Amino acid sequence: MQHILSIAEKSGIDKKFVEQYGDYKAKINLKIMDELKDRPYGKLIFVSAITATPFGEGKTVTSIGLTEALGYIGKKVHLCLREPSLGPIFGVKGGATGTMKASLLPSDDINLHFTGDIHAVGLAHNSLAALCDNHIYHGNQLDIVRESIVLNRVLDVSDRQLRNIVTGLGGKTNGFVRESGFDITAASELMAILALAKDLGDLKERVANILIAEAKDGSPIYAKDLKCAGAIAMLLKDAIKPNLVQTCEGQPAFVHAGPFANIAHGNSSVIATRMALKLSDYAVTEGGFAVDLGAEKYFDIVCRQNPDLKPSAVVIVASLKALKMHGGMAKDKIKTEKSAEALERGMVNLARHVSTIKMYGLPAVVAINRFPDDSSDELNLVKRLCENNIGVRAEISEVAARGGEGGEALARAAVEAADEKSDFKMLYEDSLNLREKIEVIAKKIYHAGSVIFHPRADKCLTGIENAGFAHLPVNIAKTQLSTTDTPNVYGAPEGFAFTVREVRPSCGAGFIVAIAGEMMTLPGLPKQPAALKIDVDCDGKVIGL
Predict the structure, then answer these.
(1) CATH topology of domain 117-234
(2) pTM
(3) 234: burial class by Cβ within 10 Å (0-12, 13-18, 19+)?
(4) Which 3 state secondary structure label does DSSP give 545?
(5) Which of 208, 276, 412, 497 has its CA 20 to 30 A from that of 137?
């Protein structure tokens, strides 16, 4: 690892803006943007993927490796990623800093407590929830209806036991009894606000507009009504500063904010992205999971709020194993058997996502992420199918094994795509009502045949629109394991019924959350959690992360 001051110098960041957290990570003071205000933006390359499978497609590995590869071909480049959550680190997914020669450093620190941003978000969120309950306990001057409180508590742990709870048991001195629950910290509206805020003033304004509950006369109650928005924003005064780290080949990387893509909007912070674009010729960022999740939300939520952050090109990551799974091959045969037929069938999923990117008016490149046991014949087959059948350029990426050198062809293709003229447009207009927006996403992105609104969701949508928020974009919380609302439906399904069972307003973040299918906002741990493989030795070295 290089000293973080060396990375900052390489990036063009004066050391007076560097707030060190040890020798290898730092926060960057937002005042740097005053000095950078007259610099032009570089070009933004957005990395997405095909629909997730249990094998892992290698999207983050590709984002890191593409950054290294752009550096390898002589481009000034900066990476922007989200912060990993301890929920999936101890659960199914494990760490989120890449692998082998396409990784971020210091990886253990980034994967664990890092600079404390996620803890700060959890503390701020729970403080707001506590202040709301305390207001009710001490007289309830705002006439808050207890049953209308929409603010759960949060924690950065996957714990299904806490999804639905009863609070305030034990008598009057312990509060009042009501039903509540927990969400994972990455699903907190405050995490979305941290990722979307333009500066500290904007963050304070967004915190003030968090919808908490309803009064007895039907009027909405916001955080500003509790007169605590300043205190909550204060807890995030350091978390709002982007975290600077490095790739293992020494390129600068911002790892900042961590909204989940299947629950929240799934993208790194606006502040970090703007900073990276000012500091480099190319900024690489990614959206969580596949095009139907992270990319759609970036285009229709982030770009809607920030028209200057339009991507110049999109890289879609695919792997042989994932394509075979989408082609219907049995999971126990995928690792050991070749199958051109399964690959060809599985290309429908990749083709679906490529067509979505083209619908947004953006040029696309496919990165075929090579794993050690992949067959060259099958890799080249997929490349030909991309170019001949789908009409998209594709390159085999070997960044995990070879670093930047292994992604040279991909980097050159991404640069060529970013230089193309694009015609970026969002999926829907603000003027549509919320039901129409949900239907547009479900039918045009997921290819649903119909949308079913549960009575609870329908009532909430009416209330949100009556309160004056019909103009907001929609963030659909759904499974990442399918383009439908049901997990493990592989390929490219058409004409299914898409079910919206619950709707939550995120007025401070500036979008409405529609929860589809059986999506949970607090994950549970699997039968064999990744935590069982993690240890630390007597010298403090982390093992198995």
Answers:
(1) Domain 2, N(10)-formyltetrahydrofolate synthetase (3.30.1510)
(2) 0.96
(3) middle
(4) coil
(5) 208
